[in-house]
Structures
1.
Amino acid sequence: MDNMLLALIIFTLANWRISFALTSPEQDGPFGLLHWIRHFVGVRYNELGDMYATNEVAGAFTCLWCLSVWVGAVQCALYLMSPDLVLILMAPFALSAGAIIVDGK
């Protein structure tokens, strides 16, 4: 049970960090990767810099609540395939989320 609780905490923090990064126009990521992903799925910006969606998939990338459901689904699918590997892959995102929460900005 302790391992399941730890996995749930890691997945929760990682889900928030990944979803927030993908839906936040202020975050471009390393080498503009997040901006590229948003553009690829159809997110565009108006002259004021506000995001808007050009299709249904892009709509999820403009809504933290919407995208977090899909990120969680991918996390669960990956966990079913390789629990240990996906926990290791999610740990840096969870640690980043923890640092952001502790920083409080």
2.
Amino acid sequence: MPKVRKESLPFFIPVFILSLIFLKLYILIGIIFLALSAFILYFFRDPEKNIPQNSENLIIAPADGKIITLRKVTSEEQKKFHTTANASKISIFMNVFNVHVNRAPITGKITHLLHTKGKKLPAFREKSSELNEHTDIQIQNKNTTISLRLIAGLVAQRIVTFKEKNYNITAGERMSLIKFGSRVDIFIPENFNVTAKINDKTSAGETILARIKKIA
């Protein structure tokens, strides 16, 4: 059984207490609350992952979910996310049944970390990237700089980052948690070949999104 994040406790404890109360008063309502408390533990599960070997030449998925966007960046995104003109944008949508612990896509130093408050539009909508609560992260190593945007969704409560700026993170290491429905945008520079495809299912810390181009 995978471990459960401690962030589940503020949600689990009151719901579980209510389930015990209602099981004595109105058993059907008690069962509903009991099922909800079980789902909270399920949502906050944090399974171990099999990190790919030779990850220094790879970009690994930062999130469990489904790829809903795969396209070249716009000129505006290029400036905002400090990436190259031919970079690719990949958006991974996480529904409430996905694992919501995010993992580092590369090994490197966190050079930028900024949280911005915002709205709660459905995370699969393109506008949510700009309008919703989000956290921007950049990780830099000798090969590249990767930009990510963690986006809170319609029922998301909060984005929690486990690391701080200037932290040296390892590919596949736990990086953040987005509570209850969300999305992660990752910007892949042109010196990598994107191997992922639209509608692919991803596993954080395991699925390979891109490989570094070989120098002739």
3.
Amino acid sequence: MIAISNASPLIALSRIYRVDIFQKLFGRIVIPSIVHREVVINCPNPNQKHYLENAVRTFIDVKQPRKYLTFTRNLGKGEQGVLSLAVEMSPNIVLIDDKKARNEAREIGYMPSFTTDIIKEAEHQGFIPSYKRIIRKLYEKKIYLPEN
């Protein structure tokens, strides 16, 4: 299974030290190099940075798109990288929380998933005890995720 993630799912789950949810659900995930720069190299929190560096060594593959594609909407570099990789790699899942990028993903043939979808699936598969508990922890860290 190929899963490509944008920054927001990684940032959210790394803030509560639960990026392992990605590994449990997908085995490995792919992020574009621009997302790696955003969430690891430029991470201002030393503990979070160290945690994400370990995740990259363990189960996150960093890939540079061969070509950054042009999209209809004005997307951030991370979203452009995710969608460019999606076109190249044909993933099973694309993880994006940004509304414009999700709409763009749908237009090019992908059904994107929210971070909340991943948390719900982790609960369904028994990897976490409670979706609501994870969401509460995220709220405590001032992370508010969009729902479907």
4.
Amino acid sequence: MNLSEDTHLTLNMIEEAAASLLKPDAALARAARNADTDYDTDTWQNMTSQGWLDILRLDDPASDGVGVRAAVMVAERLGYAGRPQPFIGVAMMAMQCLMQCSNKALAEELMSGIAESGKLVGLAWQSYAGALDANTSAITARLEGGNAVLNGRARFVLAHGADTFIVAARAGDETVLCAVPREKLALEHEEMADGGRSGLLALDNVTVASASILAQGAQADQALGAAIELGVLGTAAELLGAIDRSLDITLDYLGTRKQFGKLIGSFQVLQHRAVDIWMQKELTRAALKAAVTVFSDPEATADDRRAAASSAKARASQVATFVTGQTIQLHGAIGFTDEYELGAYVNRSLRLAAQLGNAALHRQRYGTLVKVQEQ
């Protein structure tokens, strides 16, 4: 797809702003991990003031998909900077879901809260086992007089500190999306590989008024499905950023560490391994770029987007695992220590590689969506 001059200009401005605001800072990432929020609130407010939490709504039929492209760009920069932020869970997944909900008044109220003041809205649908599909929610909804009574649990909620949760429940064969305030449910925090946390929600006969039901049936399935696929794409982008920074840290180390009186970067075998990492990083970038093009195409079907998201995530997760092992070996034991910068990227990559499906899951899903053409 050939992008218009205006789109290029907008994306360049966002890229420059993101590079300026989101600089690598492992110390800040460690401090945020140990805070109650497990993200840096100052960074979040700066992202809010930049308009990045509302970035998806830049899209219109003539925009070349600038909203999705810009959101992916910000996610990648967050990965490069090593800044754990609830951007994917809130500004990508929750916003995408709300944009397609039929209860426009409530959806607009929640989106305005996100965009204007950085309020957290989390999307909760995954079962305890963590299945990716939208119709596997373990939360049930009993519809009574227009209201919904919710029971069950949802795991792996990215924006675990949210003020409001968009809860996907099953009412028979139908999906119901409900806006549930934090105080109406039980919330536990589960620690992840990078020291951050995800949310585990428990709902016990929680009554949701009809005015708080965001969507039902096909509309709910469509909204939730679109949100999940965009989250998968955003996670692949953040992984690419982490891979990119891990390689930069490693190249700096190879250019300063000496052994036998020589820079270890002068050893040919290590140069070859660094090139292998670079090649895998660029293959990941190509897969992500191809997926973004599909997401930005108004003619693309839901299955097209699922396949594109799985292609990018399978590649990113596999490469992140490869790069993690290679960069640690090239550094030696210092590579996985918490005090050294690379350690923060190793742990973050481990989490993101599994988040919203690992490489094996997405390869399998891609295989069911894209049939091999025999010649």
